[in-house]
Write a structure and sequence with these properties.
The chain is an alpha/beta fold. It has 2 domains: 2-290, Rossmann fold (3-Layer(aba) Sandwich); 296-375, no CATH class. The chain contains 14 helices and 9 strands. The chain has helices at residues 2-16, 31-38, 54-60, 64-71, 105-119, 137-148, 168-171, 196-213, 240-247, 251-261, 267-290, 329-332, 339-347, 359-375; strands at residues 46-48, 125-130, 153-159, 162-163, 166-167, 188-192, 217-222, 316-317, 324-325. Strand 6, helix 8 (196-213) and strand 7 form a beta-alpha-beta unit. The protein is globular, with a radius of gyration of 25 Å. It starts with a helix and ends with a helix.
Length: 376
């Protein structure tokens, strides 16, 4: 939890310095919900999250260096710099990603559960989402299928009191979120999302039922985020007094105090753990800084639909005189970097022996060919 907290704090600082682009959603205050739930999983279980997922990746075992490099958009990131903050992914550790579409991960989680059922494994899936997603159409649809097909999935709604900037009572007619799956056949339970031990216990029990009884469950984790919805959030919808009141239940401070009182750690050990977390984050930032950006020729790597799977050209690169399929990008070599080089290249001899065409004419011809194939 300390590592996630320090990582998130540093990520916020680096975002302000433009080292991180796009959107950045921090989970500061929700560390107990993240760690307690992730630690309840087996290595073979699946975890799928939302766009607020840096901590989930770290808790699942993804090195902080790979997570920070992903935030930087670097080649050594856990998604090779393709996903950034909202699309973390680590197949090796069965962290199946963060998703930018609210509620978009719910039916995917049901798919993981269905695969376990069809393959006859006892792998379970934990799907974490926010309170706002419980109002999406995908919520009811997924609950219904999970109960109907008896899928081994635990759905965990992270009730941090706000759907983006809208208070729970203003966006949900039912504020007792653990009950929202009951009409679909998915019973619910609640845990204290600010208490890592309680979260761990409740999720362990839920996973056991899902695994052994093929009973999907909905777990409501009552927690709070100390920062805004994203780094672009002015936080005009809540008072400083409210945030200060919740900060009295900081999950890291509460757990540290319990460990000290139980004689597991002393104050010096707690401080040493915090220094260690800061040092790990320092190393992660240095690693991300040193990591290269993805090469331009890798632009079309890992695109889902390419080649003969569809008629026509799914992706087209028009940066060269000879318009070509995107998947052929690596074979084409380095592109001209200036207009002058571009025109010179266009005027040069072609490998096929055909007469040269001006760059603009080639581009127009490529567009016509592309439109014709796509329309055919």
């Amino acid at each position: 939890m300390q590592l996630i907290r320090r990582f998130e704090e540093r990520a916020g600082e680096l975002y302000a310095k433009a080292k991180i682009g796009g959107f950045l959603h921090l989970a500061i205050g929700e560390e107990a919900t993240i760690v307690g739930a992730a630690r309840a999983l087996r290595d073979t279980d699946y975890l799928i999250s939302t766009y607020r997922s840096h901590g989930h990746a770290i808790a699942r075992g993804t090195p902080p260096e790979a997570v920070m490099a992903e935030l930087f958009g670097k080649q050594d990131g856990c998604s090779r710099g393709r996903g950034g903050s909202m699309h973390m992914f680590d197949l090796e550790r069965r962290f199946m990603g963060g998703y930018g579409i609210v509620g978009g991960n719910l039916p995917i989680a049901a798919g993981f559960g269905l695969s376990a059922e069809l393959l006859g494994t006892d792998d379970a899936t934990l799907c974490m989402f926010g309170d706002g997603a419980s109002n999406q159409g995908t919520f009811g649809e997924t609950m219904n299928l999970a109960a109907l097909w008896r899928l081994p999935v635990v759905f965990m709604v992270t009730n941090n009191q706000f759907g983006m900037g809208t208070a729970l009572a203003r966006h949900s007619a039912v504020t007792d979120l653990q009950r929202k799956g009951e009409s679909f056949g998915v019973p619910g339970v609640r845990c204290d999302g600010m208490d890592v031990a309680d979260t761990y216990r409740v999720v362990c029990d839920a996973l056991k039922r899902a695994r052994e009884e093929r009973q999907p469950l909905l777990v409501e984790a009552v927690t709070y985020r100390f920062r805004g919805h994203s780094m672009a959030d002015p936080e005009e919808y809540r008072t400083r007094e409210q945030v200060a009141e919740w900060r009295k239940r900081d999950p890291i401070a509460l757990w540290s105090r319990r460990l000290v009182e139980a004689g597991v750690l002393d104050e010096a050990a707690v401080e040493a753990l915090d220094r260690e977390a800061v040092a790990q984050v320092d190393e992660a930032v240095a690693f991300a800084d040193a990591s290269p950006f993805p090469a331009p020729e890798s632009l079309y790597d890992d695109v889902y639909v390419l080649g003969d799977q569809v008629r026509g050209w799914y992706s087209v690169d028009e940066r060269t005189p000879d318009v070509h399929r995107g998947e052929e990008e690596r074979e084409r070599g380095v592109h001209p970097s200036t207009r002058e080089e571009y025109d010179q290249h266009a005027a040069g001899p072609h490998e096929s022996g055909d007469a040269p065409r001006p760059a603009d004419e080639a581009q127009d011809a490529g567009e016509r060919a592309h439109d014709g194939e796509r329309g055919g």
